[in-house]
Specification:
The chain is an alpha/beta fold and 472 residues long. The chain is built from 16 helices and 20 strands.
């Protein structure tokens, strides 16, 4: 039994951790990862201290079912990073990368103690072919590595250049690591940030932390900001659960209205009204974003469970329920994708408060209805539905499309599909078409448009580990 793991980020760590805990007989595992920041992936590489983990420890464990795994690793030494809003430590993302490194290295050590051969190849896999009943992986250095099974853990790629600005002076195509990209941004320059999601928030907060004095503009098609994290409570869903959803499914299908009914029961038990929550979510597209931000900051410690339950369900029940929904109901959810993502992946209170301070000071603005951005006489011209303006620097902070195949893995994906071991999903991503093929992370097609969270990666990694150990 030997497996090639393509990609060495958080998805691979979840898979390795599960393999180390569940393997009973020796085997071999080879991880292929060209990045110098092994086990961290793009999000958790060394960066500025202002780039914080965007969720409390209880939902950042890379070990399936062990919600205290990350918190135990953190211990008491990181109390200095406690967010006053949610009362939990939110450390720099580079610190979380150390946790991933520790978990992966321990998993490899444990596997070796059990007689496994475990190796890391610091090269990208650029192609694949059949090899006498096995799979041959070709790396960028021209070598061939033959394995029995493959797990694709390559992540989601980099931001798409919607306005064709690549190569233009002053354009930052990928903001991470911010420690490098922001060094080239003059402190008094007029900066436009494409996007208004969590990556854009990282950019704004990091600019402010470096003492930026120039104007900062968030350029958004929708004009929406992420919701704000509320302080975690002891409430655990009793109705909107995987078990209840499975019990309600008929002939492998469940309607969105049935899911809403479970949420209504959940909220009714707490004396809350689902219709009021729905009205508030619908207002996200029309309410003044700064007023909404101010209101949500004031509600960080509010006792209402509605948004908290939705947030939890998006990552725990969502992937299971999505596969049971009819296509018409999936389309209904896709039409509200921006709001759904905002609720499922809110911003931390520390960043929300800093944004509000910048808005109130007049240094930060949010421009909705962006139509085009062009290079104009040494600067950038921004065209919106409400007029135009100019910027000296443009930072691309949009997220890759859900289930998009990264450009670096496009050739490999073509080979795997051509070999018949993988297939393309109509809405993006890949599906295994052979029991020797496994996918962990956002590249796995057929899932919801909310990208894989750490708990999601932990669940997928553990499932892939069990499939690997069971054999093709």
């Amino acid at each position: 039994m030997d497996i090639g793991i393509i990609g060495g980020g958080a998805a691979a760590v979840g898979l390795l951790d599960a393999l180390a805990r569940e393997a009973e007989t020796p085997g071999a595992v080879t991880v292929f990862e060209p990045s110098p920041h092994l086990w961290r992936g793009r999000p958790y590489a060394p960066d500025l201290d202002s780039v914080l983990v965007n969720a409390p420890p209880v939902i950042m464990s890379i070990r399936e079912g062990d919600f205290e795994h990350y918190a135990s690793w953190l211990g008491a030494g990181d109390d200095a990073y406690v967010d006053p809003g949610i009362g939990r430590p939110l450390v720099p993302r580079a610190r979380y990368g150390e946790y991933l490194e520790h978990t992966a290295e321990k998993a490899i050590a444990d596997l070796r103690e059990r007689g496994w051969q475990a190796d890391v190849v610091p090269a990208p896999v650029v192609g694949a072919a059949h090899a006498a009943g096995r799979l041959a992986l070709r790396t960028g250095d021209g070598r061939e590595h033959v394995v029995g099974q493959v797990a694709l853990c390559v992540g989601g790629g980099t931001p798409h250049d919607h306005y064709r600005l690549d190569g233009a002076p002053g354009f930052v195509g990928d903001p991470y690591p911010l420690a490098r990209t922001l060094d080239d941004v003059p402190p008094d320059s007029d900066v436009a940030v494409i996007g208004s999601g969590l990556t854009a928030v990282d950019v704004v907060v990091s600019l402010a932390a470096r003492g930026h004095t120039g104007r900062i503009s968030l350029l958004s098609r929708t004009g929406m900001l992420p919701h704000v994290w509320q302080r975690p409570t002891a409430h655990r869903p009793q109705h909107l659960t995987v078990e209840r959803v499975g019990a309600l499914a008929r002939d492998g299908e469940i309607a969105l209205d049935h899911l809403a009914g479970l949420l209504r029961e959940e909220m009714s038990d707490a004396g809350e009204d689902l219709d009021a929550l729905i009205a508030d979510l619908r207002a996200a597209r029309t309410e003044d974003p700064v007023a909404r931000l101010r209101r949500q900051i004031a509600a960080i410690t509010a006792p209402e469970i509605g948004r908290r339950v939705l947030q939890t369900a998006a990552h725990t029940v969502g992937p299971f329920a999505w596969r049971l929904l009819p296509e018409r109901d999936r389309d209904r959810l896709r039409a509200q994708a921006r709001t759904a993502i905002s609720v499922a992946s809110p911003m931390i209170p520390t960043n929300a408060v800093r944004l509000l301070q910048l808005f109130d000071a007049g240094q930060l603005e949010l421009l909705a209805g962006v139509r085009d951005i062009t290079r104009d006489d040494g600067r950038f011209a921004v065209e919106t539905a409400h007029g135009g303006r100019h910027a000296d620097v443009v930072v691309n902070a949009v997220n890759p499309s859900p289930h998009a195949v990264p450009a670096s893995a496009a050739g490999l994906a073509d080979d795997l599909v051509g070999m018949g071991v993988a297939a393309r999903h109509p809405s993006g991503g890949l599906l295994p078409a052979d029991p020797r093929m496994h996918l962990v992370g956002d590249l796995a097609g057929g899932g919801p448009f909310i990208t894989s969270s750490i708990p999601g990666l932990a669940v997928q990694g553990a499932a892939a580990a069990r499939a690997v150990l069971a054999g093709p």
